[in-house]
Amino acid sequence: MGTLAPLLPGTVTLVAGGPGDPGLMTVAGRAAVEQADVLLVDHLAPQEALGWARPDTEVLDVAKLPRGRTTPQERINALLVAHARAGRRVVRLKGGDGFVFGRGMEEVLACAEAGVDTRVLPGVTSAVAVPALGGIPVTHRGVVHGFSVISGHVPPGHPTCTLDYAALARSGTTLVVLMGVANLAAIAGELLAHGLPGGTPAAVVARGGHPDQEVRAATLATVADAAAGIAPPAVTVIGEVAAFATPTRQLEETR
Ligand SMILES: C[S@@+](CC[C@H](N)C(=O)[O-])C[C@H]1O[C@@H](n2cnc3c(N)ncnc32)[C@H](O)[C@@H]1O
Questions:
Q1: Cβ partners under 8 Å of residue 184, min gap 6
Q2: 190 CA to centre of ligand 1 in angstroms
Q3: What's domain 11-124's architecture?
């Protein structure tokens, strides 16, 4: 089934919402929103995209706000299954790409366990798009031949942290940190401790693609201070390519 095939009743479609500007959603994602009988929406998904839905489409806000109101994942899974079993075309609209720190696979597995068919429409992840909106390519010929995307949700050394910071520090890749603002001092300190030079360029791009997008350029040694008080969501880039950071918005308003 192609990405643009019509949605079938009784199925769930995961749609990548991109980093926030509705112009960065895919054509297939928009077509799915237009056909939805019920939409389950995250807080980082482009809210303007809801305007593409039919007037009779039921919209459910299932946000998980950092340090705020939250919808448990089990509840979201149960809603997806229940609405699909009721014969509806269910669209799950998520921020960025649902398979990058998006718990998308958990929803696919929950549906599979319940015998509900799913379709995944991949899309634009903030891990690549937000740096780009801040003028930063995650790779650049002759400079860096790879990038590592990591979650800064828990600090280095936390019992649930699975990252090898020593390996990251010597990886020679651009480091792209999502969900990392609160732990930025610890993350930068760990990379410094493992030998990444303090003068390595770094930049924080906050609210990428939104009208109030903000870019703060720094170095590894200063990035935590530079990010002080910044309003989330934000992506931090560490590596030579961060020197390309520009405060200019790269995208014309599409709203
Ligand atoms: C739970 S993760 C979800 C990532 C998402 N699935 C993706 O592919 O972009 C949320 C994090 O994505 C990043 N993020 C998402 N949208 C952003 C935006 N418009 N500007 C800056 N960072 C963003 C932030 O690091 C935020 O804390």
A1: 152, 177, 204, 223, 224, 227, 236
A2: 22
A3: 3-Layer(aba) Sandwich (3.40)
